[in-house]
Amino acid sequence: MNSSSRIKPPALRTGDTVGVVAPAAAVDREYLERGVQELVRNGYRVKVSDLALARDRILAGTDEQRAAELMRFFRDPQIRAIFAARGGYGAGRLLPLIDFDLPRRNPKIFVGFSDQTFLINALMQLSGMVCFHGPMVAKDVAGGVSPRSMLHLRRLLAGEMEGFELRAAEAIHPGVAQGELIGGCLSIVVAMLATPYAPDFGGRILFLEDTGEKAYRIDRMLVQLRHSGVLSKVAGVVFGGMRSPGDPESERRLIREFAAEQTAGLGVPVLWGIAAGHGTENLTLPIGVRAQVDAAACRISFMERPVS
């Protein structure tokens, strides 16, 4: 499926109902309540899953409960958008339990990142639906995302932006390329390889970010992407936040060197440091929408609205 046939979910307007589900790790009540209050302050009605605070070991309920609740929210005609409460771990366990035809028949905005990289890419690939890599309710929204980030999220989901661009800190490798944006958290992208849920990497712009990984682990994952043939297929690569434990300058420098090394010789543009993902403003990105990477201008640009 290409971007011209990608399903764009209906736009989210002030007063619309946002659903909050917990497809991954167990959720803290205080953070959930703070995040919900912030959504209300931004003009949305909010419907929180009855199972949002469920717990099964480290997870927000059993796999069956979490998958069924996500599908229930896609079926609910009152809900116009679905926000993940948090990431952590567990979304990948749901993939075999999801009816991917249901979101295709009932397309809705789905927002999440980190461990939700499993869902945003699988929904994009198997349901054909544009999804959104962006702030989660019981984490970023509860923790005080920047006013710019929240405004960007609201305007993007409302369809008020015909296009937008994000500047990168630097260009690692030169070139200009266009393609649909895929990806998200590097460790999750690697975990999706060789599964039925992995996105099609051919001709796509691959976005990668991560947190809590030492430089050698980032390198190991990038080596796996290279050895698997993924990096030879993409049209361009864009790196967002990349934070190691404690985030010392020596590790930041080494991660950047490894990223440059593993993307060398591909003949595609590579950008470093856009404000998306962990440890950044986490500006929302539309997954499944066509983008252009221009290394000389040090930017990634989106030329179409991601909602209908």
What do these coordinates show?
With 308 residues, this protein is an alpha/beta fold. It has two domains: 3-158, Rossmann fold; 164-302, LD-carboxypeptidase A C-terminal domain-like (Glucose Oxidase, domain 1). 31% of the residues lie in helices and 23% in strands. The protein contains nine helices and 14 strands. It has helices at residues 29-41, 63-75, 101-105, 117-127, 137-143, 147-158, 186-192, 215-227, 249-262, and strands at residues 17-21, 45-48, 79-84, 109-112, 131-133, 164-167, 170-173, 176-185, 205-211, 236-243, 270-272, 285-287, 290-294, 299-302. The strands form two sheets. Strands 6-14-13-8-9-10-11-7 form an eight-stranded mixed sheet. Strands 2-1-3-4-5-12 form a six-stranded mixed sheet, sandwiched between helices. Strand 3 (79-84), helix 3 and strand 4 (109-112) form a beta-alpha-beta unit. Helix 1 packs across helix 5 (137-143). It is globular. The model has no long low-confidence stretch (mean pLDDT 97).
Overall morphology = globular
**Distance between the terminal alpha carbons, to the nearest Å?**
18 Å
Rg (CA only): 18 Å
Strand content: 15-25%
Structural class: alpha/beta
SSE blueprint and pairings:
Blueprint: E1 17-21, H1 29-41, E2 45-48, H2 63-75, E3 79-84, H3 101-105, E4 109-112, H4 117-127, E5 131-133, H5 137-143, H6 147-158, E6 164-167, E7 170-173, E8 176-185, H7 186-192, E9 205-211, H8 215-227, E10 236-243, H9 249-262, E11 270-272, E12 285-287, E13 290-294, E14 299-302
Parallel strand pairs: 1-2, 1-3, 3-4, 4-5, 8-9, 9-10, 10-11
Antiparallel strand pairs: 5-12, 6-14, 7-11, 8-13, 13-14
Helix pairs in contact: 1-5, 8-9
